[in-house]
Design brief:
Length: about 130
C-alpha cells in the first residue's frame, strides 16, 4: 500500500485527510508540526506528502523545500486555507507541487495526490526510501 505523510498543525484536518486516504487504500503517517514531519520523513519510506503551507512555528514552504532537497521531485500536495498560493514563485525547487485550497472535497484531495505522483513518475525519478 502506498504511504503518505500528512503534515498539518490542525488535528481535525489531519484526521479528515487520514480518513480519506485510508478509505482509499493508503497507509498514513500524521505529523502535527514541520519538525515532526521532517523527522518522520527521515525515518520512513513515503510515496507522497501532504503539507500545510502555514504551520504553527514553521513554514510549510521550508518543510517542502527540505523534503525536496532530500528527494528531488518528491510528490507533494500543498494545502492552505489562504487564497494566495503564490509561494511557488519564491521557491523554484518546488516545481510541480500541487496546490489545494482548504476546504477541499475528498475527491479533490485524491486527484491532487494522483497528479503529484504522476509528476514524480514523469520526471523519471525512482521512488526512493528516504
Amino acid at each position: 500500500m502506498p504511504c503518505v505523510l500528512v503534515i498539518d498543525d490542525q488535528k481535525d484536518v489531519r484526521a479528515m485527510v487520514a480518513m480519506v486516504l485510508r478509505v482509499n487504500q493508503y497507509d498514513v503517517v500524521e505529523a502535527e508540526s514541520g519538525a515532526a514531519g521532517l523527522k518522520a520523513f527521515g525515518e520512513g519510506a513515503f510515496d507522497a506528502a501532504i503539507v500545510d503551507i502555514f504551520l504553527a512555528g514553521a513554514s510549510g514552504v521550508d518543510v517542502m523545500a527540505t523534503i525536496r532537497e532530500r528527494v528531488p521531485g518528491f510528490p507533494i500536495v500543498a494545502v492552505s486555507g489562504m487564497t494566495a498560493m503564490d509561494f511557488m514563485d519564491e521557491a523554484p525547487d518546488l516545481a510541480n507541487v500541487v496546490c489545494l485550497q482548504k476546504p477541499f472535497r475528498p475527491n479533490d484531495l485524491l486527484r491532487a495526490l494522483k497528479t503529484a505522483q504522476a509528476h514524480f513518475a514523469a520526471d523519471g525519478t525512482e521512488q526512493a526510501a528516504v
